[in-house]
Amino acid sequence: MGLGNHRRTANGPNKIASASSGPFRAAIGDSAITFDNAQIAAIDALSTPARHGYYLWGDVGRGKSLISETYFAAIPTDDKRRFHFHDFFRDLQAQIIREREPLERSLRRLLGNARAVFFDEFHVHDVADGVYLSATLKSLLDGGILVLATSNYAPEDLMPNPLYHERFRSAINIIRAELDVVHLGKGEDYRLTHAALTRGFGTGTWRTQPPVANDTPSIELNAAGHIIKARSVDGDTAVFTFSDLCTRPLGVAQYLWLAEKLRTVALIDVPDLATVDRDPLARFANLIDVLYDRDIPLHVTAAGEPGRLVEASEPPRDAKRIASRLSALKLA
């Protein structure tokens, strides 16, 4: 059935949520993982069938991805879709512009017959995403589609910029009123204390060395109409300077393009992150998010340790998450 064929009901749990509770509990039990008290409380909350879905939020490294991925895998239907938040809204905006069609029709194209949708790493920095999000949530809920979302932020903190917060308030209200908001409480950051990742992004490295002069001529890459400069390209591996990717005004769409075309990225001439200005540092954070989410190995040569990020005068809003993700890189 299509998007419009699962109508929202005023009362009672979502049928897919009800059908998922038992398989989710069984999968958690079969995992043989020892969960802490806050994680157990979150698992209990997701085991209680919701009317429309769940918004699971908490600090980095607390197991949100593990718990939500286990839930998503347990949903007993193949009619389900998982999206990284950035990817979904990039594709949605492109679809609307390309086809010159209403939001509802573009959503149907992206979601197909989905009866459940999982948005991973829910965070809003682009006001356009915030505007589309309200309409998207309304459409999903009206369609009776089960929504599962994870975030590092409480709904009220998703768009902190006071210039745009009021425009995003309707989305916050929808999340609070319609989804079961589940807080995964404070505890151990398992990314920092458990075994390092052994594939993809986790095979990357962070090498600290004094900056050296780099006069390598650049190579221009055409990223869907935007020019990205690289120092070298060898098959699906490319080398960029910090200036190439973070000082220049690039956006998430260009980083997603790189992640789709490349299998390994090297970033050189990275200054001490504590000395970097706000905008380049925010772009660096977006770059790390995209490469981590797409599991692309990253090799960094920098003037300082990765932890210096949080000592910047204006660190990115997601500094804790970015520092946690950078901890997966092996110090060389």
From TrEMBL:
**Molecular function via GO:** ATP binding; ATP hydrolysis activity
Instruction: Return the InterPro entries for the record.
Output: ATPase_AFG1-like (IPR005654), P-loop_NTPase (IPR027417)
Instruction: Name the chain's protein.
Output: Cell division protein ZapE
Which chain regions cross the lipid bilayer? none
Keyword list (alphabetical) reads:
ATP-binding, Cell cycle, Cell division, Nucleotide-binding
The superkingdom listed in its UniProt entry is Bacteria
Species in which this protein is naturally found: Gulosibacter chungangensis
What PANTHER family does this protein map onto?
AFG1-LIKE ATPASE, ATPASE N2B
Biological process terms from the Gene Ontology for this record are:
cell division
Q: What is one GO cellular-component annotation here?
A: cell division site
